[in-house]
Amino acid sequence: MNCRLVLSLLLALSVIVSECKYGFVLMKGNEVTIKVTDYFADIPDVHVARATYSNEINSTGWAFLELHTSVYCHDEKQAYAAGYLEGYLTRELVWMHWQNMLKGYCYNKTDICGMIEDFVTKNEMYMNKMLEADPVNPYWYQVKLYYIQIQGLADGYNAATHDPYEFLTSRDIVWINMLGDLDELALSLSSANYSDDQLFDEHCTGLVKLLPDWSNLYTSHVTWNSYQSMLRIQKMYVMNLHLAPGNAQIIPGYKMSMSSYPAFVQVQE
């Protein structure tokens, strides 16, 4: 991804050059080495993951992350390194997003949060049970890699964090990725009236238009949300993961482009 030049008219015409950072991860066994540089040429040919990161939120409203993993590395290493590198590079935005969206979520409703936490724990136990029963099942294998990526993201974030107060666990990252489901879980798990204290009330607009002569179908989507959720990252993942263990086929969606949020490893619009 190339760094962008943004023209800004204040008192006079000036050019704002966004700051691009390049990072890469090397792994020897379980030992992770991460490097961040100003030059793409510094990235070695042999690596587990590499990324380009540019925070342009103050000029364009967006940050940009492009992340690649090596086809020559084991799937689990690819997933972990991808998460680790993203967490390390986007640490500042991850912490801001946590503060904006989740830091005070459980105030005065610890009972509801306890029920959600219990639900997540049981759900993860079920997933582990399914993986143990059928470790080569493509669906559950991808679920496993998803959670490995989340663990890597938490570890990379914490590696770049110096204040222990700002440390986040992998479960915290899971909660961030559950933001779109928290209200529904709270409503379904709690007998109390929760409707007046929802994190998301209404969210986004979709339009589907069929032409009168049926010649074409137009669709449109507009993202709108609360002011607190305006930290956005345009992401591209190129992850050469395999369909299942021992399967030579690369997953169909190995290249993904999405409008996302800090610490999200999927799209939510």
TrEMBL record:
Keyword Secreted among record annotations: no
Pfam families (UniProt xref): Phospholip_B
InterPro entries in UniProt: PLipase_B-like (IPR007000)
Gene Ontology BP term (one): phospholipid catabolic process
UniProt keyword list: Glycoprotein, Hydrolase, Lipid degradation, Lipid metabolism, Signal
GO cellular component terms given for this protein: extracellular region
Superkingdom classification of source: Eukaryota
EC identifiers of the protein: 3.1.1.-
Span of the signal peptide: 1-20
Keyword Glycoprotein belongs to the record: yes
Molecular-function GO term, any one: phospholipase activity
Family from the record: Belongs to the phospholipase B-like family.
Its biological purpose: Putative phospholipase.
The name this protein goes by in its record: Phospholipase B-like
Organism from which the protein derives: Arctia plantaginis
Lineage: Eukaryota, Metazoa, Ecdysozoa, Arthropoda, Hexapoda
